[in-house]
Design a protein that fits this description.
This protein is of the alpha+beta class. Helix content is about 35%, strand content about 15%.
Length: about 375
């Protein structure tokens, strides 16, 4: 890791004074303060700043949120810089494409086969044991789970150095978001742009001001879901008609904030109240929404944890804060996809460069494993 840090610092030396200033600001400032230096129009600033709070327990005025904003704007799709893509058939189609490719090259994939433990012998991972008692031997074991599950559940703490266990226990992975999916009898009619149109084919952000976002964060800070939440909405069925019957539509709402550690814990009553808050927030801008809802699915952070195996429902496998990035993700000395257990590797979003559907952690982990083979 020292060599990696040295290489990174040497790269910093090649930056111009202007670029180094921008980099320093992006790594330390709040998204609100950073954007104030560039823009004047509040709705524009608030919309861009919302990328600095996605999946992270911070508000737009929290130091460090500028980097989270940058994280969401990095990269490109087919040469289109900072563009987000839509996968026909939904995000699961990405996983299925990877699965088909793996099977083509000879991989066997088991589903509905929960892993109970990684089998460790003499400091080496030699296979896995399933909950049903079946065991599989392996030369390499690779975990795509978050660091908490990879090291505090899949292996015994006695097989790990005590300082590493402490680092993983201190790794911040607070859940702060939820999801509401709506089946609709028609299209929402937004008062700002009535009727159908190209605006329904892109992302729709409901977060018109810094104060709006900060007030939503205030609720979460004190253990409640946001009464008036930030929403990041897409209409998948407008882009892919096969996702809904003719004349019907699907609305997918990413919701911030919904703390995992909500006062009194999550239950059915709070889940429904959370869903109501989301619908009410949409109705402020699309008044017809309540009349066209056929069905709704509300997912709290607790649901994301129990359904998808995300600790505390954190979509990034850990917060994207400065002390958990680069050579510190997920812990100092273990940011190169290896672990203290020989032949046991990590490849999930809890490793560098972090969350999002980029494939980067898996690609770099694969290259590391191949070099070690």
């Amino acid at each position: 890791d020292l060599a990696t840090i040295k290489k990174m610092l040497n790269h910093f030396k090649t930056l111009s004074d202007e670029l180094f200033e921008y980099l320093t600001k992006l790594m330390t400032m709040s998204s609100a303060d950073f954007l104030d230096e560039w823009f004047e129009f509040e709705p524009l600033k608030a919309t861009i700043s919302s990328s600095g709070i996605i999946g992270t327990f911070m508000g737009p005025r929290s130091p460090g949120s500028a980097y989270v904003m940058l994280h969401h704007y990095m990269g490109d799709i087919d040469g289109s810089f900072r563009t987000w893509g839509f996968q026909r058939g939904g995000t699961g189609a990405v996983s299925m494409a990877i699965a088909r490719s793996a099977e083509h090259f000879g991989a066997d994939i088991l589903t509905e086969a929960p892993v109970e433990k990684v089998i460790v012998k003499n400091g080496r991972a030699i296979g896995i044991a399933l909950e049903n008692g079946n065991e599989y031997q392996a030369d390499k074991v690779i975990s795509g789970l978050d660091p908490k599950l990879s090291f505090l559940k899949m292996v015994d703490e006695s097989d790990l150095p005590s300082d590493f266990v402490t680092d993983i226990k201190n790794f911040r992975i607070r859940g702060s978001s939820g999801k509401v999916n709506l089946a609709l009898d028609g299209l929402p009619d937004f008062t700002c742009l009535p009727g159908s149109g190209p605006h329904l084919r892109g992302a729709i952000s409901i977060g018109p001001s810094y104060d709006y976002l900060e007030k939503a964060y205030d609720d979460a800070k004190y253990g409640n879901f946001s009464k008036v939440p930030f929403l990041d909405i897409i209409m998948p069925s407008v882009l892919d008609p096969d996702m809904a019957p003719p004349g019907k539509h699907v609305m997918s709402c990413f919701v911030q904030y919904a703390p995992y550690l909500i006062k009194g814990g999550w239950n059915d009553q709070k889940r429904e109240a959370f869903g109501d808050a989301v619908v009410n927030a949409i109705a402020r801008f699309a008044p017809n929404i309540k009349n066209i809802i056929l069905h709704r699915q509300v997912l709290t952070p607790a649901d994301l944890e129990s359904t998808f195996g995300l600790t505390e429902g954190n979509i990034f496998h850990g917060e994207l804060s400065l002390q958990q990035l680069f050579v510190l993700r997920p812990a100092a000395n273990w940011a190169d996809y290896k672990t203290p257990i020989k032949n046991y590797y990590q490849c999930g979003s809890g490793t560098h460069p972090g969350g999002g559907i980029t494939g980067s952690p898996g690609e770099m982990a694969a290259k590391k494993i191949l070099r070690d083979w």
